[in-house]
Write a structure and sequence with these properties.
It is a single chain. This protein has 333 residues and is α/β, with parallel strands linked by helices. The chain has two domains: 2-194 and 302-318, P-loop containing nucleotide triphosphate hydrolases (Rossmann fold, 3-Layer(aba) Sandwich); 196-299, Rossmann fold. The chain contains ten helices and twelve strands. It has helices at 2-14, 40-53, 74-82, 94-105, 170-183, 209-212, 226-235, 254-266, 276-282, 307-318; strands spanning 27-32, 58-62, 87-90, 109-113, 125-131, 159-163, 188-201, 206-208, 216-221, 239-245, 271-275, 293-305. Strands 1, 2, 3, 4, 5, 6, 7, 8, 9, 10, 11 and 12 form a twelve-stranded mixed beta sheet that branches. Helix 3 (74-82) links the parallel strand 2 and strand 3. Helix 3 packs across helix 9 (276-282).
Length: 333
């Protein structure tokens, strides 16, 4: 039923029976076609920094999934911290957020976070991330698989960024690229790896990856793809002595952090590691006398191939000659 409903909704947008709202400035959407972590957040951060380097005033529009009222938390807080010159607006109504970004904060380009399925706000560029370790969500739409919509939806994308490119065998990558060519023959394909660069403790001390290789780490996380995170830690040569996995976007409580600390000590760990997204939520809950250091791993996107193609697409939608009176994105193929 869910798959049929999503396909029907997409058909209504494709046929312009459901209308989109056109923003007065360029809109770039970054999204995915599966649930779980696909490396979307590092790409949003890279994109905003690139836009800033081009002298643009950008704003991020996010729905704030599982974000409570009040201060920014989880992903919006991470984005705000990483992109200090970018306004982050949390509003389930992305069209209203777009109006506010332009009218109140003078944004001249909007980044639609997790916007591929949010079709009400028109966009000038659709970028989709595919996790190379599980790109098509077991080929089934929720709840039977991890797909958020049928795979034919990839035809709406102008750019597909294959993330975690370094975690898959060459033969599997070749099959993946062939399949993308069949599903979306006119899309530009970009290849990237999500690489950890260093760790930051709750006391704001920076730890090099080399120093972490001499530690015994207990790892916890509440993200969409914990296996990829843990594998990347092992790939960096860090000794993992224990793990604890929480649900995606989990809101930690003080008791959780105390339990993690106890379990880490029992495993003989000398350091507790988590993702930056988890670190945003867990840092303030760490007991003062924990007796063990807690740190989050910083991560950035490293393009393997196709970065120039991606920048060309972005630069094209930023050109002043773009006609903003049109309603973008409702193309049919």
């Amino acid at each position: 039923p869910y798959a049929c409903a999503v396909a029907f909704r997409n058909r209504l947008y494709d046929q312009r029976l459901l209308k989109t709202v056109a923003a007065p400035v360029p809109v770039i959407s970054v999204g995915n076609i599966t649930t779980g972590g696909t490396g979307k957040t590092p790409l949003v951060i890279w994109l905003c920094r690139y836009l800033e380097s081009q002298g643009r005033r950008c704003a991020i529009l996010t729905r704030g999934y599982k974000t409570p009222r009040g201060p920014l938390s989880d992903e919006p807080a991470l984005l705000a911290r990483a992109c200090t010159n970018t306004k982050v607006l949390v509003d389930p109504d992305r069209a209203a957020g777009a109006h506010k970004a332009v009218s109140q904060y003078s944004a001249d380009v909007l980044v639609l976070d997790d916007g591929f399925q949010h079709r009400r706000l028109g966009r000038d560029l659709n970028i989709v991330t595919l996790d190379a370790t599980c790109p098509f969500g077991y080929e089934r739409v929720l709840p039977a698989g991890l797909l958020r919509e049928p795979l034919e939806g990839l035809k709406r994308a102008e750019v597909i960024v294959i993330t975690r490119y370094d975690q898959v065998e060459p033969q599997a990558l070749q099959r993946l690229e062939t399949r993308i060519g069949q599903l979306a023959p006119y899309v530009s394909v970009v290849k990237a790896a999500c690489r950890h660069t260093h760790a930051v403790t709750t006391e704001a001390a920076v730890l090099s990856l080399e120093s972490l290789r001499h530690q015994r780490a207990f790892v916890f996380c509440g993200i969409g793809n914990p296996d990829a995170f843990i594998e990347s830690i092992r790939h960096n040569g860090i000794d993992i002595v224990g793990t604890r996995i929480f649900n995606d976007h989990y809101r930690y409580k003080p008791d959780d952090i105390r339990a993690i600390t106890r379990q880490a000590k029992q495993c003989g760990a000398t350091l507790i590691l988590c993702t930056e997204k988890d670190g945003v939520k867990a840092a303030l809950l760490k007991p003062e006398e924990a007796g063990i250091q807690l740190a989050w791993l910083a991560m950035e996107l490293d393009f393997v191939e196709g970065a120039d193609r991606l920048k060309t697409h972005i630069d094209t939608v930023l050109r002043p000659s773009q006609d903003k009176s049109r309603v973008p994105e409702n193309k049919t193929t």
